[in-house]
């Protein structure tokens, strides 16, 4: 079966930085609903469209097509007293809201002198990445998956 609108595509993937270092690799295949439902990077979805089981893709993604440009405004310095954790450490993550009211995950990047530096950028923001994948399976999506705009069951979302 060929990948087309409203098919469930199961892939095994690898994400590398521009130097070829592996950033992330699927331990188990993942499934997504194909067809512009924002379940995978749009450029990756374009590269997968029309492929079939067993096909492989590799695509370079600029920051805007992957994890976004690095935004200095998402780096903030806050007093340590603003945090619910009494023992704030580098690497901890907290949810907050940006000016638009969207939820942003902030990562603590530094703690010193009663101040905490938090960064709301994705760790790979501003980086060019290479996404490679093997199409493991393709099947028609069911009506519920199409109406919910995501995959249900194994490899997908569970309600």
Strand-helix topology:
Elements: E1 7-17, E2 22-25, E3 30-33, H1 42-48, E4 56-61, E5 75-79, E6 93-97, E7 103-112, E8 115-119, E9 129-140, H2 143-148
Antiparallel strand pairs: 1-2, 1-3, 1-9, 4-9, 5-8, 6-7, 7-8
3D architecture notes:
With 159 residues, the chain is mainly β. 8% of the residues lie in helices and 39% in strands. It is built from two helices and nine strands; from the N terminus they run E-E-E-H-E-E-E-E-E-E-H. Strands 1, 2, 3, 4 and 9 form a five-stranded antiparallel β-sheet that branches. The protein is elongated. 16% of the residues are buried.
Summarize the structure.
This protein has 159 residues and is mainly beta. The chain has helices at 42-48, 143-148, and strands at residues 7-17, 22-25, 30-33, 56-61, 75-79, 93-97, 103-112, 115-119, 129-140.
């Amino acid at each position: 079966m060929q990948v087309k609108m409203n098919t469930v595509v199961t892939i095994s993937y690898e994400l590398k930085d521009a130097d070829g270092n592996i950033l992330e690799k699927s331990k188990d295949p993942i499934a997504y609903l194909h067809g512009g439902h924002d379940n995978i990077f749009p450029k990756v979805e374009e590269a997968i469209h029309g492929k079939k089981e067993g096909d492989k893709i590799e695509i370079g993604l600029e920051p805007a097509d992957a994890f976004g440009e690095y935004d200095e405004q998402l780096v903030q310095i806050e007093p340590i007293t603003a945090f619910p954790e009494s023992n704030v450490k580098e690497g901890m993550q907290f949810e907050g809201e940006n000016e638009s009211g969207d939820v942003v995950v902030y990562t603590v990047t530094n703690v010193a002198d009663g101040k905490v530096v938090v960064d709301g950028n994705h760790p790979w923001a501003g980086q060019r990445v290479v996404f490679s994948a093997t199409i493991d399976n393709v099947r028609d999506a069911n009506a519920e998956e199409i109406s919910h705009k995501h995959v249900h069951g194994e490899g997908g979302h569970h309600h």
